[in-house]
Specification:
With 274 residues, the chain is α/β, with parallel strands linked by helices. The protein is built from 13 helices and seven strands. A seven-stranded mixed sheet has the order 1-2-3-4-7-6-5.
Amino acid sequence: MLEELLIPVGIEVHTEIEVMADPPKADILLLRRTHPAWTPEQLKRLPDGIRDSGADHILLEFKYSESVGLSAFRQAVGYDYFYKDSKELTGREVQTFLISAKTTRKSTLDKFGYSPTDRAGVYRSLHPLLESVPLLILNELSEEPHNAYIKCFASRTEMKRAAFRTLKGQNIGLFSMKLLWFLQGLWKHWFFKGGAPMKQELTPEEVIEMGKIWGDIYLSTLPPEERLKGLGPEERLRGLGPKELVRAVGIEELLKGMSVKEIEAYLRKRKKKK
C-alpha cells in the first residue's frame, strides 16, 4: 500500500532491502526522501514519528501478527546497524522504526526502556542500543488524517473502523485506482468476513483483486444517482453520442438556456453544411 500512497508524492519506496554488502535481503521497507525536507503533500500521508524524522533513509520493520519483544528489537537494531554500515551512512541520515499492529505490553516497554513521547503512539527508548529505534503502536496513534492510512492495519477493530471513516472524508480524487482498490479490499477483508484473524496473510495483489471485485459488486447495488454522485455534468454525460444524449436528456432540456436567435443561427449553420 505504501508504494501506491507515497510514490505519487515523491517518496521512493523500496522492498527487499540489502542491509549488508553480502545479503540476505531483509523483510523491511525503505522510504527514501528526495527533497531536503518533507513536502506538504508528503506530510499528509506520513504518520506521526516518521513525519517528524529528519533522516533521508527511513527503514520500517512492521510487526503485524506477532507481539513486539526481544526478537523484534534485535532485528531492528541489526537492520539499523548493517544498513548504515553497508551504505556508509550516519545516524542522522538513517532512521529505523519498529511498527507494531498490536498494543505492546507495559512490561515490555519498561524492560526495553521505552516511554511515550508527546505524540500519541510514538515511543522512544533510553536504552543505548535502542535509542535510535522509535516504536510506533498503531492502536494508539491519534485520529489525525495523516495517521489513518497506516492505522488501517491496527489490530483493534474499532481503530481500523475509525481509520476508514477518516479516509472516507479524504479527497479520493488524489488517489490512484490501485490504492483505492487496495483500501476497498482491506475493508472487505476486515469487516465482511467476520473479522479476519491476525495470522491470515494476503499478498498486496490479492487485496487489490479483492477490492476490484468488491468495488464492482458494490457499485452494481447503487441507484444511478448514487453512482454518479460527485461527478460534474460533463463527466456524467461523457461517452454519450448526440442521439443517446437526446434520448437521455430530452430535446427540450437540451434547448433550455439557449435563446431563439442562438437556435435559429445553429439551424442556418446546419442547412449550409447540407
